[in-house]
Amino acid sequence: VQIRESGGGLAQPGGSLRLSCIASGFRSPYHYINWVRQAPGKEMEWVSSIYTDGSSPHYGDSVKGRFTISRDDAKNTVYLQMNSLKFEDTARYYCTIELDGGIWDGRGGGYRGQGTQVTVSS
């Protein structure tokens, strides 16, 4: 399984960034793609998930209403549009696929990319 994230960078509070995730090689074409993040000194936090057919978007409470997950089938890419960014959104963001293809459950295992850094700073 290959997963590659891109799109991170520096943004001001209230600003926006769009992350991209391209994943391939999972045993089934039908599964969830998850975004999780980890801030320095903190545990991994689930951010959002979407099914590979573009249905069933889910969001963590801390990003609900600000982030939007979507999928472009033609580009085989999942996007995470992040608006109204806050200082506390600063973290390394990872795109992951669980071993069972489900929503990230924090138990470890699965596949993830190298991540992309998002820094929110004034």
Walkthrough of the structure:
With 122 residues, the protein is mainly beta. The chain is 0% helix and 48% strand. It contains no helices and 11 strands. The strands form 2 sheets. Strands 2, 4, 5, 6, 9, 10 and 11 form a 7-stranded mixed β-sheet that branches. A 4-stranded antiparallel β-sheet has the order 1-3-8-7, with no helix packed on it. The radius of gyration is 13 Å and the shape is globular. The termini are far apart.
Q: Could you outline the blueprint of secondary structure elements for this entry?
A:
Layout lengths: L1 E5 L2 E3 L5 E8 L7 E7 L6 E7 L6 E2 L7 E6 L4 E6 L8 E7 L13 E2 L3 E5 L2
Parallel strand pairs: 2-11
Antiparallel strand pairs: 1-3, 3-8, 4-5, 4-9, 5-6, 7-8, 9-10, 9-11
Q: Which features does this protein show?
A:
7-stranded mixed beta sheet; 4-stranded antiparallel beta sheet; 11 strands; about 120 residues; single chain; mainly beta
Question: Into which percent range does the helicity of residues fall?
Answer: under 10%
How many strand units?
11
Q: How is the main sheet built?
A: 7 strands, mixed
In whole angstroms, how far apart are the ends?
Answer: 37 Å
Mean pLDDT: 95
Q: How many helices in DSSP terms? A: 0
Q: What is the gyration radius calculated from CA atoms?
A: 13 Å
How much strand? over 45%
The quaternary organization reads as: single chain
- Gross morphology: globular
Unreliable stretches: none
* Broad structural category: mainly beta
